[in-house]
Amino acid sequence: MGVIAKIKEDKPFIFNITNEVASNFAANGLIAIGASPAMSHTPREAKDYGEIADAVVLNLGTLTEDRGEAMLKAGKAANENGIPVILDPIAVGGTDFRTNIINEILTTVKLAAIRANAGEIAVLAGTLDEAKGPDSIIQENDPEIAKTVAKKYDTVVISTGEVDVVTDGERIALCKNGHEMLQNITASGCLLSSFVGPFVSVVDDFYEAGIYAVTSYGIAAELAMEKAAGPGTFIPALLDALYFLTDEKVEKYKQVQEL
């Protein structure tokens, strides 16, 4: 059975602590691919959800003290139960408050994957001082920088840019699917971070899961732009493309180069 077919059959439960801007879009995207999302940010139920989810996504978008506490609780509970955790360290280095919480997650929670733009990955690698926001993408998405972060935190890194990089610190893949229209809507990166959740829940090799997730998402964007006229029509077209995405379409359209 193919990966997407497996997701649609299993309907993995993906617990998201994300931001107001992304919450609705990420939930709809997860439902479209066949997953079952939960969106919550209260510390009071983070541990419970972290224990029963099939994957946990921690998105640092609109960060508060409560969300930071909830992320740590959910991440640690997931670790104790063998559940994969994905981190989206939005704007790492931008403020001390944000960076301190990200560093605490990185040092106390074992991560299945870090999904961030190339600028944020460069901050984690120590080659850039700060990433001011989700649009802070440096010109070159250097695979070696992503590889450094993967080794540093013993995780899979998905570094997004014009060409996306997926690496586990040893293996490296360049994923070339996608469309620039993704840069013209809000929360497209946040949805991708959540989107990784169902893939790591059904594929044991998180590196392969990351490649499949990024490639599938990029192909859906390409197919969406065949029908969309601009950003306003692109969003529903993207959700439609995710809903109708199949393993056969991924195999047909994928553009992946392994180094």
UniProtKB/TrEMBL annotation:
It catalyses: 5-(2-hydroxyethyl)-4-methylthiazole + ATP = 4-methyl-5-(2-phosphooxyethyl)-thiazole + ADP + H(+). The keyword Repeat does not apply. Substrate binds at residues 39, 187. One of its GO terms (molecular function) is ATP binding. The keyword Phosphoprotein does not apply. ATP binds at residues 115, 160. Keywords: ATP-binding, Kinase, Magnesium, Metal-binding, Nucleotide-binding, Thiamine biosynthesis, Transferase. Its EC number is 2.7.1.50. Pathway: Cofactor biosynthesis; thiamine diphosphate biosynthesis; 4-methyl-5-(2-phosphoethyl)-thiazole from 5-(2-hydroxyethyl)-4-methylthiazole: step 1/1. GO terms for biological process: thiamine biosynthetic process; thiamine diphosphate biosynthetic process. Its cofactor is Mg(2+). CDD domains: THZ_kinase. NCBIfam families: PRK09355.1, thiM. HAMAP family: Thz_kinase. Belongs to the Thz kinase family. Catalyzes the phosphorylation of the hydroxyl group of 4-methyl-5-beta-hydroxyethylthiazole (THZ). This is Hydroxyethylthiazole kinase. It comes from Oceanobacillus polygoni.
